[in-house]
Amino acid sequence: MRIITLICLLNSIIFASEIKSITYDGLVRMSNLIANEISDIKVGDKLNKEKINKAIIAFYKQDYFDDIYATFDENNGNLSFHFKEKPVINNIEIKGYGNETETKDVEKLINIKRGDTYDIYKEQYAKEIIIKTLEDKGIYGSVVEIDNIKIEDSISLVFNINKGENIIIRKSYYEGATLDKDEIESLSANRERHSWLGWLPWWSNGELKLKELEFDNLRIQDVYMRKGYLDAVISNPLVNANFLDYDAILMYKIIEGKRYKVNGVEIRKNDDISDIFPIETLEELINIKEDEYFNIESVRNDIEILKSYIMDQGYAYARILPDLDKNEENAEVKVIFSIDIGKKVNINNVIVTGNTVSADRIIRREMLIAPNDTYSITNIRKSENALRRTGFFDKVQISEIRVDETSMNLLVEVVEGRTGEIMFGLGYGSYDKLMLNASLKERNIFGTGMSVQFYVNYSKYSQLFNIGFTNPRILDSEYSSSINIYRSYFDNYDYVENSTGFNISVGRNITDTLAANVIYEISKTNISDFSDPVSGGLLYANYFPVNGVLKSSITPGLYFDNTDDYYFPKNGAILEASSEFAGLGGNAKYIKLFGKAGLYYHLKNLIDFNLILRYKAQIGGIFGEIGNKDIKGVPITNTFYMGGIGTVRGYETYSLTPKDANGLRIGGRYMFTNSIEASYGVLEAINMRIAAFFDYGMIGKNSFNEINRMSWGLALEWVSPIGPLVFVFPFAINPQPNDNTSSFEFTMGTRF
Fold it and tell me: If phi over 0 gives left and psi between -120 and 50 gives alpha, with beta otherwise, what is residue 416?
């Protein structure tokens, strides 16, 4: 860079000349008007060398120019500033850093944007930031080469990254420690690499995380506090790294001290709460026990329990301060909770924002806390979960805004999700072969919370047409209603089943998580096209009335859901129970009891690992005689069949069933299936997870365990732009010779 001031006339007389005009040569991205303001030189001023130098420096500080100089023409009195502008950065590309999300994150850090002026110092700074960011991730020896591609007056910057190597902690030493190494490192970001399981996501890969290293001694300190070592001293870490093979040794020095037991728990209250919260009531909430080893995590949990209890009575600004009274000689400690509750708080206002589609009332009706209510932290948390369970919103957050000592506002911030779905699906199953489905569904039509659906599912062996409408809150009350009209076709191996019917239901929310409903259904089912027209047709004819099965039934049921998300529940339970009573007319007469359960637990509650554990089960029993066309009984089209998604994966849909003496599939009166799943988030940004599962089920005509089957496999779960998809790769365990197994299954539009 250079700054040149060229004045053509050097004698003192010339510098007394008057400036009659000012021009700017080479100025492109700055207007003359702005240039006049920056130079602070006007027509009519006397020529002044110092003022011109100041103007050039002022222009240079704008960071637009590589070169600036000035000339003066004594003949016409024209002062001219000459500029050579810096090129503009028209494109930035980072190659070799990582995936798309990681690359976008580092682009934000390098402080260079498209449209900026090019500067060699900015370029070098960006290079240093990239290397430093990689080192924070434990990647050392990286090389960043920068290509400057000039295109006319602009430059395209390409950062070519040759990533170095991760420094691997091969050994870690904790001098003076008696605790197990795995226990000491349980909370640490930097841990010794597991000898042969380091490639698994839940085992340590040993990669050095330099940015986290300074906090690891505090994490180790916390481990010791959980074990009762209140006096433990943890040194700063020492890392001995070999940059030839990128191996490292991690070392700490630990003085453990004595291990303390709890010799008492004391609650100290201010005078304001003596009558509101009796000591005995608060003591009953505490889980810390005397004569047990001290655990700082138990103290934290008890603080949260006490705080939630007090805050649920309206004391939103309650404070609980823990203290420890140590007896070093006896290695005993008394835990003291000092409580200051403040004043009782009421809700002043509930402010809703972010709802561009959903009406305010759709959000407010899910809230368990409203203006003028007494503050309750539990009701606020339940309200957040209730809003998430609607499936209307991608994000829900309720924030507290303090108004004064006795009142606060609640700010409910939502981000609208995708509630309308127009889906065209193409899938393949080992039994159904090519499957086509299409649906038009809106779960929040016009922002009213009501849903409407038209669904078509077509394959070689099954077709389903369904039109449905649901109002989950009639006039924003606790009552719900729905109606569905359907027609189905199903090739059940030995015969073809055609059904037409409709159902209507009325329900009521008992609590925010529990609902009851009653469904009335009427349907007509005809059976035809037997696989064996002679024996099969004649034999199956004994199970079906000539004019088909007319079913008229009523089904009361209960539904419980306290999960924290619609598509991907992480914590909570979904429980269903129903009793179908058929025989209100028609020729089907039976009682069917059915129950389902889904239990969810996020492992992040215990450790920093994004794994969701699931347990799903269903159980059913039918009471009535199966398949006698001469009396009212249980049509075999309404019995239980096992196999496929929802029961035992790895076996073809509905292929597992009891048979009669002639070998005909007649379904079971009893069925139980359950599965254990572990779902790991592989790409959280696009809601994609991979799950491993184990399924076990049993079915029978006279008892549950007449037929038993097991399977295991993997499933790819994805909330895609066209809706939730599941791709299942199952493996049947010890299938029997006549079993129909499957190795791939596919479904869409269901919760996980």
Answer: beta
3-state helix, strand, coil in the chain (%, to 5): 20, 45, 35
Q: Which residues pair with 453 in a beta bridge?
A: 441, 468
Among candidate residues 416, 439, 455, the one where a domain is terminated: 416
Region label for 278, one of left (φ > 0), alpha (ψ between -120 and 50) or beta (otherwise):
beta
CA distance 25 to 27: 6
For 592-621, how does the pLDDT look when each residue is reduced to its tens digit (9 = 90+)?
Answer: 999 999 999 998 767 667 889 999 999 999
For the chain, how many structural domains are there in total? 6
Q: At what angle are helices 49-60 and 32-39 packed, to 10 degrees?
A: 120
Q: What is the pLDDT of residue 13?
A: 41
Type of residue found at 532: D
Identity of the amino acid at 565:
D
Looking at 74-123, which runs of residues are DSSP E strands? 78-85, 88-95
**Last residue within a domain, chosen from 370, 391, 416:** 416
Only one residue has tokens 């998604």, namely 645
Residue type, 67: D
Task: Name the pairing type of β-strands 707-720 and 723-733.
Answer: antiparallel
Q: Is the pTM of this model over 0.85?
A: no
Structural domain boundaries, residue 334: 261-340
As a whole number, mean pLDDT of residues 569-593 equals 92
d(C-alpha 629, C-alpha 648), whole Å:
31
Could you tell me the CATH number of the domain that includes residue 706? 2.40.160.50
C-alpha closest to that of 577 among 594, 560, 591, 592: 594
Residue 339: which of 282, 268, 281 has the closest Cα? 268
How large is the average pLDDT for residues 626-649?
Answer: 82
Whether residue 668 sits in one domain with residue 709: yes
Q: In the structure encoding, which two tokens stand for residue 621, read together?
A: 């029993």
Contact 480, 508 (CB under 8 A): yes
Question: Tokens for 297?
Answer: 């995590």
Integer CA distances (angstroms), 538 to 526, 658, 663, 748, in order? 15, 19, 13, 38
Using 50, 70 and 90 to split pLDDT, how confident is the model at 476? Answer: confident
